[in-house]
Amino acid sequence: MRQGPCRAAGIALALALGGGAQADTLRLPSGVAAQPLPPVWDEDMSVIRLRYVVERLSEPSSLYAAGSERVFDDMQWLCETQARRLFDADTDPRDEGWTGAVVTLMDREVEFGITDMDAIQLFEWFTFTMDGCEIALGDIHD
């Protein structure tokens, strides 16, 4: 069981975000607006699940319609910037037992662990490295 400053920071952030309430909107590198949801500290998988609502995700006029690379770039940016904010500046998440992050973009808020067949949800799995976040190619997670 992980404890210490990173766990306290995560709990404080979750409380600051008010449960399922949406916090300030983030402007992603692509220009897309994303509203963060509280992170989910998945101790079973040793990952932090970073979840964001992107309301126009499914629209043909979305900035993402032009190419999936924008989606990946935004997800990687979220992992590298937002996951690190959950820890003290001098703390490596790996030293606290966290191997990576799963970034989720969704067109509407969906409760974690619940299936909503009408919602669009995009997921990407990243591992933490010394340089930031790298896509977890070749890793298969159940």
Q: Give helix and strand order, one letter per element, not per position.
A: HEEEEHEEE
Q: Class by helix and strand content?
A: alpha+beta
Radius of gyration: 15 Å
SS element count, helices: 2
Tally of individual domains: 1
Terminal CA distance: 21 Å
Largest sheet: 7 strands, mixed
Q: What is the number of E strands?
A: 7
Poorly predicted segments: 1-22
Quaternary structure type: single chain
What fraction, in percent, of the residue positions are helical?
A: 10-25%
- Measured by DSSP, the beta-strand proportion falls in 25-35%
Shape annotation: globular
Q: Overall pLDDT, averaged?
A: 81
Structure in words:
This protein is an alpha+beta fold. It has one domain. Helices cover 20% and strands 25% of the residues. The protein has two helices and seven strands. Strands 1, 2, 3, 4, 5, 6 and 7 form a seven-stranded mixed beta sheet that branches. α2 (68-83) links the parallel β4 and β5. The longest helix is centred in the middle third of the chain and has 16 residues, at 68-83. Mean pLDDT is 81; it is low at 1-22.
